[in-house]
């Protein structure tokens, strides 16, 4: 602790804590209206199969604030959740990614999967599923080409309600993907409750598949679990050829990471798809 004299008052504070608090306050203040001011856009990171062919893309939100510069989603999504702004932001994310991906699929004649990260709080909104299904069909995309990425961390509370909403979506053909698998607090029993089509192995395991026997064994176990529950396995954060080869050999279905591509703007995704189509 450190005593600080500011104007007329003396207060005790922890510098990092105060800095953190002010930063969050600033984010909350500036995030309001950021969509309207055109500061938010979407990037898309390709997801490939074992032969490197495009399987899908994950939509990742980006905020370029004139005041704060680039703010990563890890920083502002939690603030949006706590400040009650996630529904508005979530709708922007859904609208923008459905629109841009539908356009790219029309322009290239290729259809592929679009994964959208959704906060469990978004699912709490009345009629979330009806609205989403309506938006998907308005954009002319098939339900089977949409996946919702849910983080297991957030699932602990309210598992029954979340589960029933996801089941409605899943029955309509939308795929459900469990993000960051292996990092949360939830037990394996979550796999029994949730309607799941895909598990994403977290980057923290992928990082060490080459040099750490334990990480490798865990990846193999996750893949075996996936097989048992009849879900596909996607490895995220693949950065090297060795990691990729090792994951292919272990039986992973899909892959995402800087080795294949960084997250791209819609315009760069279009170029990426045209280039990969030329090569095939
Ligand atoms: P996530 O859903 O697990 O997304 C994967 C993150 O890993 C992304 O970071 C991506 O850019 C990064 N990544 C992918 N491949 C590599 C790699 O090879 N190396 C490294 N070092 N990183 C890689 P990003 O875009 O900063 O997103 C962070 C998190 O923020 C996401 O984790 C997700 O939880 C959340 N997020 C991002 N966009 C959205 C969104 O539209 N809605 C919601 N609710 N959350 C989002
Ligand atoms: Mg994700
Ligand atoms: Mg993830
Ligand atoms: Mg992750």
Automatic annotation (TrEMBL):
Residues 24-277 form the EAL domain. It comes from the Bacteria. The keyword Ribonucleoprotein does not apply. The keyword Transmembrane helix applies. Keywords: Membrane, Transmembrane, Transmembrane helix. This is EAL domain-containing protein. It comes from Thalassolituus hydrocarboniclasticus. The lineage of its organism: Bacteria, Pseudomonadati, Pseudomonadota, Gammaproteobacteria, Oceanospirillales. The chain holds residues 477 to 756 of 756 of the full protein.
